[in-house]
Amino acid sequence: MNATTKRHFKSGAVAVALLLLASACAPYQLQKAGTNISVGSEIKVDSTIDWNKSKLDAIEYWTADGPDLNILMFMTDIKKKQKLKRVSRPVVNQQAPEEPESKEEIESLTEFDPDMTPIEIIEYVADFIERSFKMQVDVGTIEPHQFADTAGVRFQFDFVQDNGLMGHGVGAGATIEEKLQMIFFMGVEPYYYENYEASVEALLNSVKRDS
Amino acid sequence: MIVFRTGVILCALAAAACQSNKLDVYRKPINTPSAALAEDSTKASPTEETETTESEGYGYRLSDITPAQRPTTGTVEGGIWYQADKAEVKIARSGKRIKDGPLPAYVEKIVCTLAGPYCDDIRVYVVRTNGFNASMMPNGALIVQSGFLIRVRSEAQLATVLGHEIGHYLRRHSLKRTKDTVTGANTAAWVGILLGVPLGPQVFANLREFSRDHEREADGYGLLLMSRAGYDPRQATWVWDRLVRIVGPEAIKERKRYNFMATHPTSPERSKALRIIANELEERGDVAAEPIDGFVEYQNVMAEYRADFIEDEIADGNFDELERLLEILIGDGENRAELLFYRGEIFRRRGKKKDPEQAMFAYNRAFRAGTPPPEIHRSIGLIHFKLKEFDQATEHFAKYLELKPDAKDASIVKSMMGAGT
């Protein structure tokens, strides 16, 4: 091995090591409890507890115990004609990461339309959850909800993960200035949903416009 | 010109020879079935383990697995089974496994009928997973996907694919595949298998993919087992013809859409080969005079699950294939009102420019076909609502709530009634 080859080999090895490190460790930040925390460009929320903050692709999420156990997702600023591509599920329990959706699969996805009815918004989001987290989602109650200063929608759901874990979810959102703002939380049973239910309810009821 | 003609003739002869070789692979299980299934033991396939490679023509002289056989630990096959046993535990406890209702027992009954002396060695797991597939693990765990179940028409078509998967198990195709996948140079993987170290997901996935000749041989077993169980072996051809219509000719041509398309013989090749061999079986008198179709039985079992399976496919957003599938299911003639409702749902959920009109057309057909689910009124109401036709929307929302007063979305539906007044 000559000097140039050695140099290339070393820099390649460093790059691979960094890549492995980056994929192995989600870059979490502490999201401290507080008020008027901006999420996206249009809304802000209050949180009564501390969370770990990270991103799945471009979507911000907070978790208390790890994303496989509970996850609070902020799907903010979804624009007209936007398709909800499956997010890369975090690598847990040595599971292989999901293959990204093919061009044809993305092409066929439903586009966001600001004129969607509340029921259609929930269908749009629930389909995304099923695709991204490889779980059966059974949408339960759907009801009107005041989201910031806008008439929005609130929904509950049950889910079963492919590893057999079951859990609950709750979310709320609205179309504000032609863009969908949706926050949902899901956690497995027992404990990981119930323990944070009150904090999440308070957060969903705290949404304000970020003027 | 003469050279050109000679070339054409040679090419045609080569193609014919190739087709003939492939046909022999499909035929092999029928002419020399595994020892446990052979009615005439002199015609059973050899039991000695003398492998040849695929390039040498039909090979795989691995002995067949015998009923109740389990490989000993410390062997490569024992290691593969150990890995498969661990994977099976995950499948058994998977949240996607269907345990309730008549479907699992129904599929198990058909597997037992087909597998005969191997019945107790095969365990069936029906899972809610989209897409046309079923797969056999090396240790006899058979995974049947919901996406496959909604794409076939009858018990006989279900038996076609189940028989094929049983063929993989009988011929120990996974062992041959392992030896191809985990090459001698990959010592760590061999040691991993022998010591039971978990294999990487890709290596394990490879174990479940078989070579094209394995697939042809498994198809032959499918025909053998289904004709013995009283099913019409021509159903096997119809399954692949149906898949071509569902997936679409483009996807078939480019061998994409499903993983198995890359590893299996092409659907047209299978369809043609299976038709030839099914006719040969009939000529030999090996087809029942009144073969079992099991259309009504199958439709009755599926009635409890079909709507959920279609909803799963809609969530995947594969609207074009689903549209073709539903048109075929509607053509089958059962549950037309429900299926036409879901055809409308595809258009409503997709939401492209002309889709609302197409959705309304399908909903109207659903009413003409029978009694569709109450949700049809909610869907029609939503289309009117978006068109700002609030009176018609309210009328349909009211009908929906009348038919389904305990609907979980009653609160939001009520909030939409009376809009625009």
Can you walk me through this structure?
The complex is a heterodimer of chains A (211) and B (421). Chain A is an alpha+beta fold and 211 residues long. Chain A has one domain (3-31, 38-89, 103-209): Mog1/PsbP, alpha/beta/alpha sandwich (Protein Transport Mog1p, Chain A). Chain A is built from four helices and eleven strands. Chain A has an eight-stranded antiparallel β-sheet with strand order 1-4-5-6-10-9-8-7, with helices on both faces. The N and C termini of chain A lie far apart (61 Å). Mean pLDDT of chain A is 85; it is low at 18-24 and 91-96. Chain B is mainly alpha-helical and 421 residues long. Chain B has a domain at 71-283. Chain B contains 21 helices and three strands. Chain B has helices at residues 2-31, 76-92, 103-115, 146-149, 155-170, 173-181, 187-195, 201-207, 212-228, 235-247, 249-254, 260-263, 267-283, 295-302, 306-316, 319-332, 336-350, 355-369, 375-386, 390-403, 410-416; strands at residues 123-127, 134-136, 141-145. A three-stranded mixed β-sheet of chain B has the order 1-3-2, sandwiched between helices. In chain B, helix 1 packs across helix 9. Residues 6-18 and 46-61 of chain B have low confidence and may be disordered. The A-B interface holds A 94-96, 105, 108-111, 113, 115-120, 123, 126-127, 130-131, 135-137, 139-144, 153, 160-166 and B 90, 93-96, 128, 198, 201-202, 312, 314-320, 349-351, 378, 382, 385-386, 408-409, 411-413, 415-416.
Query: What is the distance, rounded to the nearest whole angstrom, between the alpha carbons of the first and last residues of chain B?
Result: 82 Å
The total of helices of chain B stands at 21
C-alpha Rg of chain B (nearest Å): 25 Å
Overall mean pLDDT score of chain A? 85
- What is the global morphology of chain A? globular
What's the helix and strand layout?
The complex is a heterodimer of chains A (211) and B (421).
Chain A: H1 3-24, E1 29-31, E2 34-39, E3 43-47, E4 51-56, E5 59-63, E6 70-78, H2 103-107, H3 118-133, E7 135-147, E8 150-161, E9 166-176, E10 179-188, H4 194-205, E11 208-209
Antiparallel strand pairs in A: 1-4, 2-3, 3-11, 4-5, 5-6, 6-10, 7-8, 8-9, 9-10
Chain B: H1 2-31, H2 76-92, H3 103-115, E1 123-127, E2 134-136, E3 141-145, H4 146-149, H5 155-170, H6 173-181, H7 187-195, H8 201-207, H9 212-228, H10 235-247, H11 249-254, H12 260-263, H13 267-283, H14 295-302, H15 306-316, H16 319-332, H17 336-350, H18 355-369, H19 375-386, H20 390-403, H21 410-416
Parallel strand pairs in B: 1-3
Antiparallel strand pairs in B: 2-3
Helix pairs in contact in B: 1-9, 2-7, 3-5, 5-9, 5-10, 9-13, 10-13, 10-16, 15-17, 16-17, 17-18, 19-20, 20-21
